[in-house]
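Subgroup meeting minutes
Present: P.N., E.W., G.H.
Scribe: E.W.

1. P.N. recapped why we're keeping a running log of single-chain structure predictions: easier to compare across weeks, and new members can see raw inputs and outputs side by side.
2. G.H. added today's entry (70 aa).
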Amino acid sequence: MPFVNIKTPEAALTRAQKEEIVHRTTDMLVEYFSEAARPHTMVLIEEVKDGGYARADEVFILPPEYRAAD
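Output recorded in log:
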């Protein structure tokens, strides 16, 4: 069973964008593993709260202008 775990900043994507990522990721995996993989493919999108991760020793907070508007 193919399994993909995608982590994004909280509120960075709309529901529609998440759905598109799920469909496109599934389609990509089917290209590699065949159509038989589609019903067994798991795509997990996890939202990480502000301050829950860091880059280059700096805690990351998503600026308001990058937040998705549902």
